[in-house]
Automatic annotation (TrEMBL), chain A:
Gene3D superfamilies in the record: GHMP Kinase, N-terminal domain (3.30.230.70)
Keyword rRNA processing among record annotations: yes
Subcellular compartments: Nucleus
GO cellular component, one term: nucleolus
Name of the protein this chain belongs to: Genomic scaffold, ProqFM164S02
SUPFAM superfamilies documented for this protein: Ribonuclease PH domain 2-like, Ribosomal protein S5 domain 2-like
InterPro entries with a match to the protein in the record: ExoRNase_PH_dom2_sf, PNPase/RNase_PH_dom_sf, Ribosomal_Su5_D2-typ_SF, RNase_PH
Keywords: Exosome, Nucleus, rRNA processing
GO MF annotation terms: RNA binding
Organism: Penicillium roqueforti (strain FM164)
BP GO annotations: nuclear mRNA surveillance; poly(A)-dependent snoRNA 3'-end processing; rRNA catabolic process; rRNA processing; U4 snRNA 3'-end processing
TrEMBL record, chain B:
Positions of transmembrane segments: none
Any one of the GO BP annotations: exonucleolytic trimming to generate mature 3'-end of 5.8S rRNA from tricistronic rRNA transcript (SSU-rRNA, 5.8S rRNA, LSU-rRNA)
Subcellular location: Nucleus
Database matches in PANTHER family: EXOSOME COMPLEX COMPONENT RRP40, PNAS-3 RELATED
Domain K Homology: residue ranges: 165-226
Principal localisation: nucleus
Protein's UniProt name: Genomic scaffold, ProqFM164S03
Residue ranges annotated for the Exosome complex exonuclease Rrp40 N-terminal domain, each copy included: 25-68
GO molecular function annotation: RNA binding
Keyword annotations of the record: Exosome, RNA-binding
InterPro entries assigned: Exosome_RNA_bind1/RRP40/RRP4 (IPR026699), KH_dom_type_1 (IPR004088), KH_dom_type_1_sf (IPR036612), NA-bd_OB-fold (IPR012340), Rrp40_N_euk (IPR041054)
Amino acid sequence: MVGPIASLSQLHRSDGSASYKCPATGYSILGAVNGPIELPARRDALKPEEATVEVFVKPGTTTGGVGERYIEGILRSVLGKIVLGREKGFPRRGVVITLAIVGGENVARGDNYLTILPALLHTGLLAMISASVPLSMTFSATLLGVTEDGDIVRDPSPTAAKAAVSLHVFAFSSKNHLLLNESEGRFGFDTWEYVRERALSICQGETTASADGDVAMGEGTASASVSGFIRETVEDQIYSDYAYKLDSI
Amino acid sequence: MTALVLLPSDEVPQDHLPTNNSNPLRLGPGLRILSQPSSNGSNHVLTATQAGLLTTDAKRNTVSLLSFPNRRYIPTVNDFVIAQIHHSSVDFFHCMVTPHTAHALLGQLSFEGASKKTRPMLKQGELVYARVQSVGLGAGAEVELTCVNPATGKADGGLGPLTGGMVFDVSTGMAARLIRASSTSAENTDAIEGLAVLSELGKKLESLGGFEIAVGRNGKVWVDCSIAAESAVKVTVAIGRCLQETDQQNLHTHDQKKLVMKILRDMKLVS
């Protein structure tokens, strides 16, 4: 399994940015974050004591439509929850996250948007970390598909996702709490529970012992987990940014 | 001690905290204190809110997190900034400190020796080197700047209007580095904070009369060398390019020296 590739702070003019490429699904996303900035009009009126988080998703070849608005709503609720919007300088200001889909198969109108959701979530998180927006926690997300035979497939490609009976996106916080659950298709409670356990082991790299002892193998090491990947990406960038400081230690 | 990188929600390990107990521990940016209820009362833990390198200062008993260098500048009291006048009103100059944020206010009379009769008449687009006086409390508060030290009435540290010269944008991390490098003692000026670029430029440009520089915490560097007469523009641009390239490419000290030599040769300032 080829892991994702990500790098931070590639854009110079934005406060924070990240690029993310997922070879399994083929998507490549470029994200930029600006914040805290003054918002036009009175968009702060709903929650004057907190920062407003705005998310924009730009498809590579067309203008945004209903699908993008739908996914923006999901992203805004997840990313907005982890931002500490009451820190100094943030209340009544905005954190604007722009995610451009620069590569991969186009999500046509009416198509399923769940396949791209983990990539968008990770790009948004990494870009916010790179902009030093205060966060209460980090998270990791994964996409799982259930085939007709009942097999659970990790990061199915768009064609495999179309053939799947059900699709599930899970996001877990760095403290292993479930942050997001988006499921689509036909599935039962048992299937959902299996998928959730599998997703947790993929995200956190922990072998969660289920009742029948059926644990996913080969995903146990921390670096192979998605949260380990996020940590390594951030650490690499900080080590290279502060190389001058680390040399003298 | 090994370098420790923390991500949001990571706890600061006890053994990384400074052990000097003479004065209370001070928290820098990027860290917060959380109390966790436990069986024996409550228990305090320090957690990170940003990703960064954990640094401690045993002498001053501080612990802080060095975050990414290209982050946005958030005004903090006593920071030195380079502000641009946007417009002026009866009592205030409205200045731009960072893009896409509300204007900061600079009192018409907060200059050295200013009175109703004699005060600087700054126009739109002019620059001032100012200190952040207050950031206000609560949401939507205005940032106030000043160009005098309120205690002495003097313009300490070169505060006031900046005439001539040119401003270059650098990252906020680079600006902080330049300020730290200049505030450390003048002994062994070679490569403090990994910065050799300024001392190298100083050596090479000494024959042309040297240059003047002002660094704002908001990621602006003002460079002036009007003393160099006909080559003033060239020297200013060369210094700006050296600083920006060092920042963007995150150059090592020996690469910085090479870069200075290359740019000065390109601009035909040294042979």
